[in-house]
Amino acid sequence: MRVVILCGGESPERDVSLASGWSVARALLERGHEAVLVDPAATVPVLAGPLQPGDAVDGFAVGKEPPSLSDRPQLRWRMHAALTGGPVLELLRGAELVFVALHGGWGEDGHVQALLEMAGVRFTGAGSAACAAAWHKGRAQAVLGAAGLPVTERALWRPGAGDIPQDVRRLVAAGPVVAKPVADGSSVSVCRVDSLSQLACVAEEAHARDADFLVEPFLSGREFTVTVVGDRVLPVVEIELTTPLFDYTAKYQAGAVDEVCPARIPAEFASRLQELSLRAHQALGFGGDAYSRTDFRCDGSGEPMCLELNALPGLTTTSLVPLAATGAGWTYSDLIQRIVDLATR
């Protein structure tokens, strides 16, 4: 097949997305496909291609810190222009499939998916409505809670809009809490907060970014993640932390955490996490043609709480979804081919 891979983009996960894109390109070539790598936010969008099976493919290293957002308006302008007209749009329309390897921002909140849908382009992953439903953590948790999944108490807050709301104060007083952007991925700007004074420092940064924050109790138990590919639930991965939180640095630097798959947990507990993940996948509108990754953390008594569902989780060679695929007996190229098959069946 002729496949165009979309990666890069305008979000804080831009570097992760570029690493995913190059890894996906290598896997597609191994499977006999032709690939073109496109970063719609770049000055020169076509990064490589058309690549043929047997061609050498570079990699991309993810830095310790997410990229600066200072040039985000320019990245967004270029991305919108590329996806709505000109040679990139024609390239997408001429492909047999678009593999969406964008993470965060417009690539994961439904913007790009909506544009591809309007252009009549076939693409991998969930559609625009499901992506939008999963992207806003507060609304997604409300949906999951209404569907009977275990979620934590939470409070939404827009710093700079007045005094700290009473429900946020109450959570901090009972603390500690976790404060995180309500719409970001890769654990960008996620932090543990132990006091109102510390929260004020977090609020100052959030106000500068014009970002809403989600504040929820810090859960002291073990952390797990479960991937769903179509109607197949993959083995549970446990994230064994050496830091309080699974933040951006811990996620993308080798050796920062231990990620164990299959998780060393009783079979009954593993089945429960898998069943909850499939229910979350379905509750947020993900069908049998999509894939997702649901994150859990346990409270002090060992009860798992559903933190969020990732519509376009990382696909770097060290990401959690490929690790879960390995636990299921799949190679990385097996995983990518299965994602392609879901979109083209």
Tell me the layout of helices and strands.
Layout: E1 2-6, H1 14-30, E2 34-38, E3 46-51, H2 72-84, H3 86-94, E4 97-100, H4 105-108, H5 111-118, H6 128-135, H7 137-146, E5 155-157, H8 166-174, E6 177-181, E7 191-193, H9 196-209, E8 213-217, E9 223-229, E10 232-233, E11 237-240, H10 248-252, E12 258-260, H11 267-283, E13 291-298, E14 304-310, H12 320-327, H13 332-344
Parallel strand pairs: 1-2, 1-4
Antiparallel strand pairs: 2-3, 5-8, 6-7, 6-8, 9-10, 9-11, 9-13, 11-12, 13-14
Helix pairs in contact: 1-13, 2-3, 5-6
Q: TL;DR?
A:
This protein has 13 helices and 14 strands. The protein has helices at 14-30, 72-84, 86-94, 105-108, 111-118, 128-135, 137-146, 166-174, 196-209, 248-252, 267-283, 320-327, 332-344; strands spanning 2-6, 34-38, 46-51, 97-100, 155-157, 177-181, 191-193, 213-217, 223-229, 232-233, 237-240, 258-260, 291-298, 304-310.
What does this entry look like structurally?
The mean pLDDT is 91. With 345 residues, the chain is α+β, with helices and mostly antiparallel strands. The chain folds into 3 domains: 2-123, Rossmann fold, CATH 3.40.50.20; 135-150 and 220-344, D-amino Acid Aminotransferase, Chain A, domain 1, CATH 3.30.470.20; 155-217, ATP-grasp fold, A domain (Dna Ligase, domain 1, 2-Layer Sandwich). It contains 13 helices and 14 strands. It has helices at 14-30, 72-84, 86-94, 105-108, 111-118, 128-135, 137-146, 166-174, 196-209, 248-252, 267-283, 320-327, 332-344, and strands at 2-6, 34-38, 46-51, 97-100, 155-157, 177-181, 191-193, 213-217, 223-229, 232-233, 237-240, 258-260, 291-298, 304-310. The radius of gyration is 20 Å and the shape is globular. The strands form 3 sheets. Strands 9, 10, 11, 12, 13 and 14 form a 6-stranded antiparallel sheet that branches. It has a 4-stranded mixed sheet with strand order 3-2-1-4, sandwiched between helices. A 4-stranded antiparallel sheet has the order 5-8-6-7, covered by helices on one side.
